[in-house]
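Progress report, Aim 2. The chain analyzed during this reporting quarter is listed below.
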Amino acid sequence: MNVSEEVRMSPGRRASVLVENEAFADQISYTFDQLLSPLGLSFDVRFVSRIAAGESFDIVVSYGTARPAVSAAGQVHIYESDLFGSNYLQTASLPKQRLPVWNGLPVLFSGRGRLDSFVKKEDHLVETNIDIVAAVFFMLTCYEEVVVDARDRFGRFPVEESLAVREDFIERPIVNEYIELLAEWMESTGLQLKRPSPWRGKEFAVCCTHDVDRLRLFAGLRTILGTAWRALRRRSLHGLMRVIRDLAKTRLGLKKDPFDTFDDMLNLERELGLQSAYYFMAGGSARRYDGRYELSAVSGLIERIRDAGGEIGLHGSFNSLGDPELHPSERKALESVAGCRVTGNRQHYLRFRAPLTWRLLEAAGIEYDTTLGFSGRVGFRCGTCYPFQVYDVEVGRRLDLWEIPLTVMDKTLYGQEGGRPPLMLEKLRSLLASVERFGGVVVMLWHNGSFYEVERPGFRGVYEDALRLVHRKSTYCVTPREVLEAWKSTRELTK
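Predicted structure tokens for the chain:
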């Protein structure tokens, strides 16, 4: 958004956002859109230096190193920290650990106001040194992943390097907590907020998604030997014999391959009235990691998914995170087989490089991505359970691309909770409760190959119980594409 544009998010009262820092006005304006639009507020951005003498305002949210003395019915002033300054995109700009805490809330960036505490309230004025603007920008843009030069063996940002993991707030949608904090401050000045509800009367949304990495377990000698070796490594003679028995039955046509679970998933989702998304691989140059199937082999499956009301998405190949040629060609190949427009993507192995991968997805015409969760921890990698428009911190602009963050992946959940079904279900309940509190979106990823009893005993039951739990709650259970359409249409209606 250009600073001169008006962003009207509600037919009611409009807030004036007064910005001191003109050099980073675009970054700051973007962040206020993420903070205020979920509250149903319309707002316009003004520079403090250009306010006319004697000009009066209704409700003001100001941001800078000094509080502007303006005539307003109510004012919230957020003292600016050092993020948007000379150290931008340098390690010196990163939050300093250990983080201070205010009322149980981690404070990523502290402002430079001369206050006795983090928050000061009097009459219709709130002043705060909790720089929620810098914190929200930091989380939504994957700022630390751009600045910190660390990668794991798959070229991903390491989960253990994440501030959210090191400070133990990965399972808290901290951006949503900051939005609620701003709402509390604004309401304390007398503003009445009327928030939009995008989920058709439901409390929150759930997206059930599936990545199709492989079609069959017993497809080649390498995978067969790998499965047998994992059983031996667990010192499970029973497991090894089960693998051999299942292999023989599969080859004789007496049993379906353990990875051929598509009809089971589709039937359960149909029974519960859920619609899901399936992300297919359509090429790739890393044969060791990419899908070992041709698209022609899944044309019938794609047709069944579409007949059930499901969405077909792209599963960006292993090397596509930084290759400008791959997403366009893979999307075109998938569309030719699927017979429909492909608008969504999730990266294979969750391989993602901020902001490059986002930039490449935009160039390929992808409308949304749903990669951003960690393979090593469930929770909120971007700190939010809301869809959000992506911002490129290197180029300094909004991209024509949305992120619907991944909340929980099956393999991650299984590993994190030691394969114990009661703990896995309890973790899912906790995540659902957090998202329900803020009226956001839970994105769950279940691979078709995650239900083989030899490798993940009891996990099929966890999947089925999780979907039934979602079904019993007041949830809007649709595809990610439909979730994004609902979210964006609410924003359009309030302009």
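Confidence is low (pLDDT under 50) at residues 1-12. The first helix runs from residue 25 to 36. These observations will guide the mutagenesis work planned for the next reporting period.
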